[in-house]
Amino acid sequence: MMTCRCGRLKTPAGAANEADVNAISKQERGVYGLLALVVVIYGLYFSLYQIQRHCTLETDVDLTNMEQVIWNTLHGRFMRATTYPTGTGRTITDFSKRVTENRLADHVQPILLLLALPYALVPRSETLLVVMSVAVGLGAIPVFRLAKRRLHTEGWALAFAVGYLLLPVVETNSGWDVHGMSFVPPLLLAALDAAEQGKRGWWWFWALLAMGCREDMPFLVGWAMFWMAPKAQRRNAALMLGWGTLWSLLNFLVIIPSFGNEGSPYLVRFLPYGTPLTQQGITDLLGKWQFWQVEVTKLLLYGLRLGLPFLFLCFLNWPALLAMMPTFLLNGLSWWEAAVFPNRYHYAAPLVPWALVGALEGFLFLEDRLKKWKPSVNWRNVMGEALMVSMVAAHFVNGYTPLNHNFVWPRQTARDAQLIAALEHIPSQVTVSASPHLAAHLARRPTIRFFPDLRDAEWIAVDLEQGWDPYGRWRATLDAVQNDEDWEQVASGDGWVIFGKIPASVWSNEHSEEK
Fold this sequence. Notes:
This protein has a domain at 414-514. Helix content is 58%, strand content 4%. The chain has helices at residues 2-9, 13-55, 61-74, 111-121, 125-138, 140-151, 154-166, 168-175, 184-196, 200-211, 217-228, 234-259, 279-286, 289-307, 318-332, 352-373, 379-398, 414-423, 436-439, 474-482, 509-514, and strands spanning 432-434, 448-450, 459-463, 488-493, 496-500. It has a 5-stranded mixed β-sheet with strand order 2-1-3-5-4. 42% of the residues are buried.
């Protein structure tokens, strides 16, 4: 009896250790399983969401630009892009001056060549939308590793990974149109994770991919890695900064000017609308005190919007703050509305990794100080729960799921279906001038224009209910087309119309019956 009781109460040391190891291993497998589950759910949800956006005519200019460039490149027309309204942001009136027909006149994005691989297998818009959604979701994996390395617990690391997926500044990269910058957060997170593990080859691999997402990213990646990489990797980080700086200079001073013909496509984004893009015009603007008052206010508001979901912990870590500084200043001081709202568009993508890691470091910094002040309190739980509440609250306000009370799942109407079906009847090789959101369904062709740019156009597709165009005069052009004998209306519906310069008999019999 005693032996039996002792057998139950006392366990040999080796057996106890083995039991602990098995228990820990089982716990870790459970956490990793949950991590995989949330990543799969995120990728699946946003893939469906993006496909539904496309089916409801909500995709727009960026998808058109990306897909046409990739499609043309795969068909032997390297980086051909024909939709840009203007390189300087000014409204233009003479379309004949638009001689630039290459993506490299506006953006240098070698990442598009990588995206061409899955697109070549399934050449559809949905392919790019799904790849983007999955890629952003995979960023939760390096977030988990980075958090676990600092917090030493799988539970809180998983919480940070879930928080990453809930952040509007992250979700906007998979909830908007495809863009090279959408891939920046997961690539930079993977690069930092590899750097901290001492895997130099993978570090450079992920960093180089991130550098290929936009012309300024080589410098931004090198700059950030110089501050964020471990001290043991500082020499490699300095090399990365030097390489990135040279690459960005090449992009801005050689490649873009060589393919473009209309000046800088960036300067206008950082100046008030209507500012003369001359030395005197810019000098006069910079001399106005009111201009600087507005700039300081905008910068403070940008910091508030970016930092609030992180409880401003990201600003307590000076390496992360330095890593964010170039993009933070460019966005915060910009007069380009899309740039100053980090939860709406992809312009804040380069800030996501450093804001997350900065929040982790700031979390540990503040926890250490609070422990010294009042060691009896479990500050990790208090602060961790507060941070998670803040991230979830940000999602409630600006997230891309039904948890946000303002969120509306895209629902295709009969009009949407009819219009998309009509667009599919337009011949695939002809030049089309279309409303921007209709162009997203017509990008697989050598040349496409945004209406009312009619250069070389053989077909026109206009949505009368969403007639926005980057030139500001679509209605007058539409009236002229309707009164022009060279154009024939071949199809129309509820608030949309399609014209062709070719005989209407080319329009399929099937569509004629529908009409």
